[in-house]
Write a structure and sequence with these properties.
Blueprint lengths: L1 H12 L1 H9 L14 H34 L3
Length: 74
């Protein structure tokens, strides 16, 4: 673990080495893996959007219920 921390510090302090790492390809053999398939990314964002819509609906229900209880004096 110490060797890893020392290497990180070395990279952080050496601008040329840091840039060398930044210029490396992001993927092995410069080929995106299955996690970057367009369909998989679309499903990921669809899930996020759907979850946010459901959460908004749940909160809207809670607010309406709270307002109704307030009007009824409870």
């Amino acid at each position: 673990m110490d060797a890893l921390i020392e290497e990180i510090i070395k990279i952080y302090q050496d601008d040329e080495l840091y840039l060398k790492y930044l210029k490396e390809p992001y993927f092995y053999n410069n080929q995106p893996n299955e996690y970057f398939a367009p369909e998989r990314i679309k499903l990921f964002f669809d899930k996020i959007i759907k979850t946010q819509k459901l959460n908004r609906l749940k909160w809207r229900e809670k607010i309406l219920h709270y307002n109704l209880l307030r009007k009824l004096g409870r």
